[in-house]
Design a protein that fits this description.
The structure is a single chain. This protein is of the alpha+beta class. Helix 8 runs antiparallel to helix 9. 43% of the residues lie in helices and 16% in strands.
Length: 1009
């Protein structure tokens, strides 16, 4: 009989062998170069044990699970073959199978090994992904805390339970594949017959073999029932919207699982006993018993009991389990120890009361780091190939003994911005290798042009004496900052914009070739200072082998062909600080916003590292990516993965040196058992907390992503009793971002403030909370570190019937005030637009103060947002002024800002333009105001002082009306009407400018309080 397998010619076999060999060789070279490059990278930073630990663990799991699973399948295929009938039954069915038997039988051993190998490789590759589960399992560390249901230490659930569940899943897979394989082999060789014959459909050998396999499957099911009991502590109770075992689970499902466990064990014994009897009926009866028991005892009874006994009295019956969930969630997310205060806000305050708030009010932030990237770039870029991240950072510095928050950024190299003729391999990777400069500006002050006061990071020549004299405030700020925080190494080889590799080292002739900085801040771009990297970062490219390696790794032949490389050359790769920490600590979840800090003269990137788990019993399970997202996520920051977690700790503070790339991990939460387990697994890779340099610790800030998760949990878990939680009447929610044009949740903000009961101002992250499905403010939440760097969370809770405006309502109130609306419309005319800054909510003088900076941005490629005014709301009063001090005096009366140093109001802009009067809603509507600046947008802006007879007000109102008429005409599409409205608008603008000029000729004095 002809074999059903097709024949292959000798030539075709050779072609196939060559092609397969080429593919295998390419794979080996690619994988090998990647592995070797990784080894060199880890060796550069002295942490090869991270790579070896991972490789050894993955190899162990591959062999352990792959070999065992493959062997189980192969052995059962072989057993099925050995149990085949000596003489195949004669039937039409068997005759059709004969030719397949003839083709397979001579090769059955090889095919069995191949099948086992395929199953083993697939299982082994899957097992490699469980390297972290295995390491936690073998390095389990006690929590010292037991769950309330089974009395087991939490470490069993976090470290051991996930591994045993994975072992069970692999065991089930191996048995199922063995059953399927055995059925196929038995059928192929006549042990199973679909057509009944004299010997029956199943041979006795087949019955015995399948009885053993099914007995093993049922025995595994008994073990699964045992672990299912613990798995109930991670379930979801739809009735109470909590995670953890419910009343129905504990009172009905848990006993059912215990019963099913014994039934499954009994059924397994029946299957094993049938090996001696080899009958179909006993195992069939056992399967039926197990199936019916699972449906009735494990499904129907608990479901009916829940429906008719639990749900009608859910509030009472579920109370204990809700309280378990509240306690576990607070502990797992570290929100169990919160300073909670009742806060009934005032709606009015005196100037004297506000003046006493010297720890909060003068520090109100006027510079929004999410808005000012273009401003930093335009004013501090110096050369077109420098760039700042699209989201700037904010950090704390102590200058002249005063704690102050600063907007900070690094002037990084962006080689994609080189001119087209400069886009070659030498320039991209050898000449333009690094950025230069730590740029900082105090967050609460602006210049007379509405720009930041840059106190650090300038390139080129120092300011002249005349320039210093014309900017005495800026000179004073720069001198003080650089005296207390000198930057001795400003070069940035490792940064958030460093997405490609760089090759450093002297040129073959020994000269410097790296662009370091321009010789002047302007002029000919060819005037530059060159340098050569002399740090310890980078991997040497000093041999033909290394050159060949990196040519293959980077897919770049110039490593082999270019004469620009020599024995002094080193290549830097994986230069993004967050990516470097990810490679060093793959067990950490990293915050999405690394930030730079000057520490002992060097620039260090600081990244918050979290340990997480999804197996903390009774704790609320959250999707990290969805919970930590807000309206600014992804804009210069990294969005979190949508991993499921129910436990999080900020256990590690990581640093990356911006010059040499050194990665250091410091233990920050030295009580975290998860970090202790990881530190054991990786041989003490995380340094103890006591080794944290004090200069570094001064720049630690409460991590943003963790705070977002915590505020989301506190929206529900601030309630303390099961009844309140079940009713859900006091639930909160994170407010939507009120900023026009933005969608999503309002981001939290870092500020320097002094909250009630705080002894001094602290650098803290804050967020308002609003009522569930309403916009009224319900609470303020703040987090910071105390003097011992212990996390402190403070919560001001408003009365439940509070009608205090939330951020969205406050924004609407401020923008709808007549004078504010007129001014914003004028700022938004022509080629300019209004840009809204961060809306801060601050507890001030027993009430709540909303502060929002307003910027103006002209159209055009080089336009930048410039500060114009500040909006304030306290109670029902609105203030809108060109300075923070002016707004405070307008809102609360003269003297509200009297504590400003040396007469300079925080946020004031030295200006020749007078300040406007106060605005109030409802009430009088004084004229709008801004400061003029030579570099400000050219679109019309309102006057900074009231004109006699209200002429500026009248002109501004006319501009607003003309603009509204133009928009109405544009909606109709009437070209004649549009033309007339355009001309009317131009005339109104001209009149407004003339009125402003007349008003400026007779300015009124600016408030000095």
């Amino acid at each position: 009989m002809r074999s059903p397998l097709p024949s292959v010619s000798r030539r075709a076999r050779r072609v196939v062998i060559v092609l397969v060999s080429a593919v295998v060789l390419l794979f080996v070279l690619t994988a090998g170069s990647s592995l070797y490059a990784d080894w060199l990278w880890y060796d550069e930073i002295g942490l090869t044990r991270v790579l070896t630990t991972q490789l050894q663990t993955k190899l162990l799991l591959f062999v352990l699970f792959g070999v065992i699973t493959g062997a189980i399948v192969a052995v059962n295929l072989y057993v099925a073959y050995r149990l085949r009938p000596i003489f195949a039954p004669m039937s039409l069915e068997q005759q059709n199978l004969e030719r397949y038997r003839m083709a397979i039988a001579p090769r059955f051993g090889l095919l069995t090994l191949a099948a086992g190998a395929v199953v083993g490789v697939i299982t082994g590759l899957s097992a490699q992904g469980q390297w972290d589960t295995w390491l936690l399992f073998v390095n389990s560390t006690p929590f010292g805390q037991n769950d309330e249901q089974f009395g087991r230490d939490i470490s069993f659930y976090v470290f051991e339970y996930p591994f045993w569940r994975y072992v069970l899943s692999v065991a089930f897979t191996a048995i199922v594949l063995s059953v399927i394989g055995a059925l196929v082999v038995h059928y192929l060789f006549g042990g199973i017959r679909l057509q009944a014959g004299s010997g029956g459909r199943l041979g006795t050998a087949v019955i015995g073999h399948l009885s053993v396999l099914l007995g093993l499957f049922v025995a595994l099911k008994a073990v699964a029932y045992y672990f299912d009991r613990f798995g109930m502590l991670f379930g979801y109770n739809d009735a109470t919207k909590t995670h953890g075992a419910s009343a129905a689970d504990i009172e009905f499902l848990l006993p059912a699982k215990n019963i099913l466990l014994w039934i499954a064990a009994l059924c397994a014994l029946v299957f094993f006993a049938n090996l001696g009897f080899r009958r179909v009926l006993p195992p069939a009866m056992a399967l039926i018993l197990l199936g019916i028991s699972a449906i009735v005892i494990g499904g129907a009874v608990p479901a009916l009991a829940e429906q008719f006994t639990i749900k009608p009295n859910a509030a009472e019956r579920e109370a204990d389990y809700i309280e378990r969930s509240i306690a576990a969630t607070r502990d797992a997310y570290n929100i169990d120890d919160i300073d909670r205060q009742n806060y009934t806000p005032n709606t009015t305050a005196s100037a004297q009361q506000v003046a006493q708030e010297s720890g909060t009010v003068p520090n109100a932030r006027l510079l929004d780091p999410n808005v000012l990237s273009d401003t930093f770039t335009q004013l501090q870029q110096v050369r077109s190939f420098y760039r700042f991240n699209s989201s700037l950072d904010i950090d704390q510095y102590t200058v002249d003994g005063q704690l102050q928050d600063y907007i900070v950024a690094l002037r990084e190299m962006d080689t994609s911005r080189l001119d087209e003729q400069q886009q070659n391999w030498i320039n991209l990777h050898l000449n333009y290798t690094h950025g230069n400069g730590f740029v900082a500006a105090p967050a609460n002050q602006v210049t007379d042009a509405g720009q930041p006061y840059f106190v650090s990071g300038s390139l080129g020549e120092a300011p002249t004496a005349d320039a210093e004299q014309s900017d005495q405030q800026g000179a004073k700020l720069r001198t003080a900052f650089n005296r207390d925080n000198p930057v001795r190494q400003p070069r940035i080889y490792y940064g958030e914009l460093a997405s490609d590799y760089a090759v450093v080292g002297k040129a073959p002739g020994g000269e410097d070739r790296e662009f370091d900085r321009p010789t002047t801040s302007g002029g000919d771009e060819s005037e530059q200072v060159s340098s050569t990297y002399d740090g310890k970062g980078g991997v040497a490219v000093d041999s033909l082998t290394r050159k060949a390696l990196f040519a293959l790794y980077f897919r770049e032949r110039n490593f082999l062909l270019s004469s620009a490389l020599n024995d002094n050359s080193k290549v830097m790769y994986v230069r993004n600080p967050r990516e470097r920490v990810e490679k060093v600590a793959p067990f950490l979840t990293l915050d999405g916003d690394p930030y730079p800090a000057v520490v002992d003269g060097r620039i260090q990137w600081i990244i918050d590292g979290y340990t997480t788990s999804n197996f903390y019993p009774y704790s609320q399970r959250e999707t990290l990516g969805a919970t930590a997202v807000d309206s600014r996520t992804g804009a210069g920051t990294v969005a979190q993965q949508n991993d499921q977690i129910n436990y999080i700790r900020n256990s590690v503070k990581a640093t990356v040196d911006a010059y040499d790339g050194t990665v250091t991990l410091y233990q920050f939460d030295d009580t975290d058992p998860v970090l202790k387990a990881w530190n054991k697994a990786f041989d003490g890779i995380v340094k103890p907390k006591k080794d944290i340099p004090p200069e570094l610790a001064e720049h630690f800030r409460y991590p943003e992503d963790q705070f977002k998760v915590q505020r989301s949990l506190l929206a529900k878990y601030h309630v303390s009793t099961a009844g309140d939680y079940f009713n859900g009447q006091d639930f909160w929610q994170v407010p939507d971002d009120p900023t026009p044009g933005r969608g999503g949740k309002q981001p939290p903000f870092y500020v320097v403030a002094q909250w009630p009961d705080q002894a001094k101002p602290t650098f803290q992250i804050t967020t308002p909370m609003v009522a569930n499905r309403r916009n009224n403010l319900t609470a303020l939440i703040s987090a910071h570190y105390d003097d011992n760097y212990k996390p402190v969370i403070q919560m001001l809770e408003l009365p439940g019937d509070s009608q205090i405006s939330g951020p969205t309502q406050a924004q609407n109130k401020m923008r709808s005030e007549d004078t504010v609306r007129n001014n914003l419309n004028v700022l938004d005319l022509g080629d300019s637009e209004v840009v809204y800054g961060n809306l801060l909510t601050l507890p001030v003088a027993g009430g709540l103060l909303y502060v929002e900076p307003i910027y103006q941005r002209a159209s055009g490629q080089d336009s930048i947002p410039l500060f114009q005014n500040v909006l304030m709301l306290y109670g029902e009063k609105v203030a809108y002024q060109s300075t923070l001090g002016g707004a405070l005096d307008s809102l609360f009366g003269e003297g509200a800002s009297q504590d400003a140093p040396e007469g300079q109001q925080p946020g004031d802009r030295p200006s020749t333009t007078p300040s406007p009067g106060a605005t109030q809603s409802p009430g009088a509507t004084p004229s709008p105001s801004t400061s003029a600046s030579p570099s400000a947008p050219t679109s019309p802006t309102p006057s900074t002082a009231p004109a006699p007879g209200g002429s500026v007000d009248t002109a501004a109102a006319a501009v607003e009306k003309a603009n509204a008429d133009l928009k109405a005409a544009q909606r109709t599409g009437d070209l004649a009407a549009i033309g007339k409205a355009t001309q009317d608008l131009q005339n109104a603008v001209n009149s407004w400018q003339a009125a402003r000029a007349r008003a400026s000729a007779s300015p009124t004095p600016r408030p000095t309080g």
